[in-house]
Amino acid sequence: MNAPRIAGVDEAGRGPLAGPVVVSAVVLDPARPIAGLDDSKRLSARRRESLAEQIRASALGWSVIEVEADEIDRLNILQATLTGMRRAVEALSIRIDEVLIDGNRVPAGLALPARAIVGGDALQPAISAASILAKTVRDARLVELDSQFPGYGFAVHKGYPTPAHLQALRQLGPCAAHRRSFAPVRNCPIQADFWTRPVPWGRTADS
Questions:
Q1: Could you tell me the maximum CA-CA distance found in the chain, to the nearest angstrom?
Q2: What does CATH list as the number for 6-146?
Q3: Global confidence as pTM
């Protein structure tokens, strides 16, 4: 009897003020185990990159979805993350028997059995693999954004609200990569005049 195919799902980038939230889904091959899988936050950048290459080469299936800042502002960060998780599972091109998701929520609309596991990125290899892919893709994307929008230090802090990032916001104002619904961006005294899209300020992170 064949072993069930388990898709692990995790995200990177819920907390930053800029850039996308990135979600990955990975189905590992039991016949090709990958040594050293762990929560991406516990691994060095070099180790993450090495493992990401192995995951792409040996997994039965994998996907990476980016949910951009404008959609985060429209949906709120929680709903944007759950939407990305659903899209990542749907993007897998192989049969799946169950979905394991890091955290305490399962996205609505999944057509498969799914379980949320708090701390799953350190407990379930498939979730660990997804966390590594999501993190490496997001870090690379923030390096690209650093070239597009110099002066904010995206390549260093990856969009997180570090003192240097907050200082750049105060000096430069937000750029198009920033999440306008996040308070430090929304309350920035300098606002760019190229922003014309409405933002639903009444939405909260838990709605």
A1: 62
A2: 3.30.420.10
A3: 0.90
Question: Could you tell me whether strands 6-12 and 98-102 are parallel, antiparallel, or unpaired per DSSP bridges?
Answer: parallel
Tokens describing residue 61:
């299936």
Task: Match 């016949």 to its residue by tokens.
Answer: 31
DSSP string, 105-165: ---TT-SS-EEEETTGGGT-HHHHHHHHHHHHHHHHHHHHHHHHSTTS-HHHHTT---HHH
Q: Select the more confidently predicted residue: 190 or 119.
A: 119
**Where do we find the tokens 């070239």?**
147
Please say if the pLDDT value at position 202 is more than 60. no
What pLDDT, in 10s, does the model give residues 105-128?
999 999 899 999 999 999 999 999
What value does the CA radius of gyration of the chain take, rounded to a whole number of Å?
A: 18
What letter would DSSP give residue 17?
S
User: How far is 3 from 1, CA to CA, in rounded Å?
Assistant: 7
